[in-house]
Design a protein that fits this description.
- By secondary structure, this protein is an alpha/beta fold.
- Helix content is 50%, strand content 15%.
- It has nine helices and seven strands, in the order βαβαβαβααβαβαβαα.
- The protein has a seven-stranded parallel sheet with strand order 3-2-1-4-5-6-7, sandwiched between helices.
- Strand 1, helix 1 and strand 2 form a beta-alpha-beta unit.
- Helix 1 packs parallel to helix 2, helix 1 crosses helix 7 and helix 5 packs parallel to helix 6.
- Bound molecules: NADP nicotinamide-adenine-dinucleotide phosphate.
- NADP nicotinamide-adenine-dinucleotide phosphate binds next to helix 1.
């Protein structure tokens, strides 16, 4: 595969990029910290990535640079066939309620900017006959829940967008993979109390890579979260008002 990756410097993205490198995929990294990107690129080359791993600046806070970042990836890879977007931000509901600037930036990064990036990427993939667009949403988007009202709303919108893409463009060759992680121990969740069934980045990345290879439209990871969310989706509203999760 020839993969453009936004968010490979940390967490689940780093674990997934390492698996891709180890099997010889070609990679191009996008991100907002040049030094971090270079370090990650050298790490992936050492792990077996095909050819030189190139990098370009791309910040979800600046949509005006998405096209030039994808141009750089296209030039370096000779036309990419897979786009992975793990980049995203989290803040607690308390912090977001207390800080409207923080809320605005999270809402923009996780919803508007993420979707604009996906639009730029999927147009390029469709223009060359198709490819895979793998994007990280969250189980937090499955139901309105007290601790993740704003973060969850961005992921609910993102999941709906990805489902729509899958319905409209699958026949034209676009394979959309919407990843819905449950709680995974990464820098994003540092300091939060892990719930039962909390996962580690590596097994989650293995499950996501298998979903990318198969073109699975929706994947829960760790898999137990599919069951957990089936229960939560079916809880009546009067119960949801009482519980804290
Ligand atoms: N961990 C979980 O429990 C969990 C659960 C459900 C869903 N998810 C979702 O899964 C995805 C990956 O999560 P993770 O836990 O691996 O997160 P993470 O360890 O915090 O890594 C996030 C990645 O996103 C990048 N990023 C953040 N803001 C960015 C911006 N404005 N522009 C460009 N890149 C940016 C980070 O780069 P920098 O180094 O520049 O910050 C980093 O590479 C996210 O979309 C998250 O919402 C995670």
């Amino acid at each position: 595969m020839k993969v453009v990756f936004l968010g490979a410097t940390k967490g689940i993205g780093r674990a997934l990029a390492r698996l891709m490198a180890a099997r010889g995929d070609a990679l191009f990294l996008l991100g907002r910290d040049a030094a971090d990107l270079e370090r990650s690129a050298r790490d992936l080359e050492a792990r077996g990535a095909r050819g030189k791993v190139g990098t370009a600046a791309c910040d979800l806070g600046d949509a005006s640079r998405f096209e030039s970042a994808l141009d750089a990836a296209d030039a370096a890879l000779g036309g990419f066939d897979t786009v992975v977007l793990t980049a995203g931000v989290f803040a607690t509901q308390e912090k977001l309620e207390a800080d409207s600037a923080l809320a605005a930036s999270l809402l923009n990064a996780n919803f508007t900017a993420t979707i604009l990036f996906c639009e730029a990427a999927r147009k390029r993939l469709l223009a060359r006959g198709g490819g895979t667009l793998c994007v990280f949403s969250s189980v937090a988007g499955e139901r309105g829940r007290k601790p993740v009202i704003l973060y969850g709303a961005t992921k609910a919108g993102l999941s709906a967008y990805l489902e729509g893409l899958d319905h409209k463009f699958r026949a034209a060759g676009l394979r959309t993979v919407c990843v819905k992680p449950g709680f995974v121990k990464t820098s994003m969740t540092e300091g939060l109390k892990p719930p039962p069934f909390a996962g580690e980045p590596e097994p989650v990345a293995q499950r996501v890579l298998a979903a990318i290879d198969r073109g699975t439209p929706v994947v829960y990871a760790p898999p137990m979260w599919a069951l957990v969310m089936m229960v939560i989706r079916n809880l009546p509203r009067f119960v949801m008002r009482k519980v804290a999760f």
